[in-house]
Amino acid sequence: GNSVTQMEGPVTLSEEAFLTINCTYTATGYPSLFWYVQYPGEGLQLLLKATKADDKGSNKGFEATYRKETTSFHLEKGSVQVSDSAVYFCALSPRGYSTLTFGKGTMLLVSP
Amino acid sequence: GAGVSQSPSNKVTEKGKDVELRCDPISGHTALYWYRQRLGQGLEFLIYFQGNSAPDKSGLPSDRFSAERTGESVSTLTIQRTQQEDSAVYLCASSFGQAMNTEAFFGQGTRLTVV
């Protein structure tokens, strides 16, 4: 079956620190991969996505590269801000399917 | 409205009662999804609509759960004879096309508490 595994949180960082949130997946074929973010009091929103191997998704300073050989899609940011504090969800959508399979989410807390 | 709207935002119900949760998707979005998030867990897929049809109901946890969509717009998720394990945040999302090809927009969810 399809599944997504994310690192446990919360991840606590100081402002301007480097961020990595690990995500690995299991899927049949070659799925599309996504990172969604949920800011406090708001709904989930798409942060970035990649649809094929070696693609790099990027947005708001965040990046993730689709690594087929390691079945991973780790989220990175070079310098986090307090406003990045949120819950981050890794997700996949298998080819030919219309649904998203999510990980459990990783809470990020950034302090000034 | 501009986004996906869900109502009510919070619902407390007694065990054994029926509840209805409503989702108003973004206008023109053909695909609509229901997810459940229990405390400490990831998002659990429940059901997917394309138009008014539900080609994938595989995530509905029991026959107490049902959903419908009318006019390719509003959807209602009904839980009959609620149990305490039904307590969760129920999230609705909509998208213009298939999830793999386009962005899914989520509502803020309905927090259901069964006491």
What does this structure look like?
Chain A is an all-beta fold and 112 residues long. Chain A is 0% helix and 49% strand. Chain A has no helices and twelve strands. In chain A, strands 2, 5, 6, 10, 11 and 12 form a six-stranded mixed beta sheet that branches. In chain A, strands 3-9-8-7 form a four-stranded antiparallel beta sheet, with no helix packed on it. In chain A, β7 and β8 (62-65) form a beta hairpin. Chain A starts with a strand and ends with a strand. Chain B has 115 residues and is mainly β. Chain B is 0% helix and 50% strand. Chain B is built from no helices and eleven strands. In chain B, strands 2, 4, 5, 6, 9, 10 and 11 form a seven-stranded mixed beta sheet that branches. A four-stranded antiparallel beta sheet of chain B has the order 1-3-8-7, with no helix packed on it. In chain B, a hairpin with a 2-residue loop joins β5 (43-50) and β6. Chain B is globular. Chain A binds chain B through residues 4, 31-32, 36, 41-46, 49, 51, 89, 91, 93-95, 97-105, and chain B through 3-4, 31, 33, 35, 40-43, 45, 48, 50, 55-56, 91, 93, 98-101, 103-109.
Task: Tell me briefly what this model is.
The complex is a heterodimer of chains A (112) and B (115). Chain A has 112 residues and is an all-beta fold.
Please name the defining characteristics of this protein.
heterodimer; A: 112 residues; mainly beta; four-stranded antiparallel sheet; B: mainly beta; seven-stranded mixed sheet; 50% strand
Topology (elements, then pairings):
The complex is a heterodimer of chains A (112) and B (115).
Chain A lengths: L2 E4 L4 E4 L4 E3 L1 E4 L5 E7 L6 E6 L5 E4 L2 E4 L9 E3 L8 E8 L7 E2 L3 E6 L1
Parallel strand pairs in A: 2-12
Antiparallel strand pairs in A: 1-4, 3-9, 5-6, 5-10, 7-8, 8-9, 10-11, 10-12
Chain B lengths: L4 E3 L2 E4 L5 E6 L6 E7 L5 E8 L2 E4 L8 E5 L5 E5 L8 E8 L9 E2 L3 E5 L1
Parallel strand pairs in B: 2-11
Antiparallel strand pairs in B: 1-3, 3-8, 4-5, 4-9, 5-6, 7-8, 9-10, 9-11
